[in-house]
Design goal:
328 residues, alpha/beta, D-Maltodextrin-Binding Protein, domain 2, five-stranded mixed sheet, 13 helices, 11 strands, globular
């Protein structure tokens, strides 16, 4: 991650060096100082990669440094809460996913309202997640994994990005609907989970498209199914969806998008929304989304993104009733 760190350092250096120029800037001009981009997951993750690549292009468009600020943990709620507590002035952006909407439905301690406290700026991609096993696993299909779990002396372990996360729910949906004997092992993100998965210390795991495709190509993982998909992923067309395999409640298409705190001036919202959507529509960025295992999106509006969020909210409200996961 040296490149990512160098980007942040350069951005901060630019912010310091521009101090005198900022003092001469017109009071009402936006932006007239560095903009912080909060990423509520760990450095090195796919979302972090997206943030840094967008940050470089947005910095050129706005003429101010974009400083990526990773605040992982608690199913993104730590980073999200930080943005909620920040001034609604357009100088703190959030890059988030379906968890922004899903987490308040699942965790009693999460108090923010994604519809009342955030304004969606740009829907840049639809997300997916993949069930994988180490290459050493005898399971080559979901059904074989299910049968293997029924014969094993103990439930098979599967890694997730946290207790109560979307992948945790997907694992429990498989267990409830197929009779599989599975036990989730929560991690603080995908990056710290991968060594245990690749080392065979996990029987299975849920990972995003980039590591799934990369390690499958290298022969180190086997991809069994995809979820958060209404159809097969463009980047992995040979991988069936869980819905295809008969597991209900797993086809709620997720999202990746940018947000600001509600109350941000409308002119600022409009400028940020236009610039972010312009970047999302470029051939380079659309191709990058596919390479990372996502479906690129662009050309939407604040209102259409709000409708997408509502659809995800309603879908997960129904999905939560399909399993019995105790959340402390």
């Amino acid at each position: 991650m040296n490149i990512g760190r160098r980007t942040v350092v350069v951005a901060w250096a630019a912010a310091v060096g521009m101090g005198a120029g900022m003092a001469r800037a017109q009071p009402g001009a936006y932006p007239n100082r560095a903009i912080r981009l909060v990423v509520p997951v760990s450095a090195g993750s796919s979302l972090d990669v997206i943030a840094r690549e967008y940050g470089e292009q947005l910095q050129g468009a706005l003429g101010q440094p974009i400083v990526v600020d990773n605040k992982p943990g608690a199913n993104q709620s730590i980073g999200i809460g930080h943005v909620v507590a920040s001034p609604a002035d357009g100088y703190t952006l959030l890059l988030s996913t379906t968890e922004l909407v899903r987490a308040p439905l699942t965790f009693p301690h999460i108090r923010y309202d994604p519809f009342k406290e955030f304004v969606p700026l740009a829907h840049i991609a639809s997300t997916s997640i993949f069930l994988v096993v180490p290459a050493s696993s005898p399971a080559r299909t979901l059904q074989e994994l299910v049968e293997l779990s029924k014969k094993a002396p103990n439930p098979l372990s599967y890694g997730t990005i946290g207790h109560g996360s979307g992948p945790h729910f997907y694992g429990e949906m498989i267990a409830v609907q197929t009779g599989a004997r599975l036990s989730d092992v929560p991690y603080k993100g995908e990056v710290p989970m991968l060594p245990d998965l690749l080392g065979g210390r996990l029987d299975a795991a849920w990972v995003s498209g980039l590591p799934a495709a990369q390690y499958a190509k290298e022969g180190r993982l086997r991809i069994l199914a995809g979820a958060s998909l209404s159809r097969r992923a463009t980047s992995l067309p040979d991988v069936p969806t869980l819905a295809e395999l008969g597991v209900q409640g797993t086809d709620i298409e997720g999202f990746i998008g940018y947000f600001v705190a509600r109350g941000t001036p409308s002119a600022v919202v409009q400028r940020l929304s236009a610039e972010l959507d312009r970047i999302a529509a470029t051939p380079r960025m659309r191709q990058r989304m596919v390479e990372l295992g996502f479906e690129p999106r662009s050309g939407g509006t604040v209102e259409s993104f709000q409708a997408t969020m509502q659809g995800v909210h309603d879908g997960w409200s129904r999905a939560n009733k399909l399993v019995n996961i105790k959340i402390e």
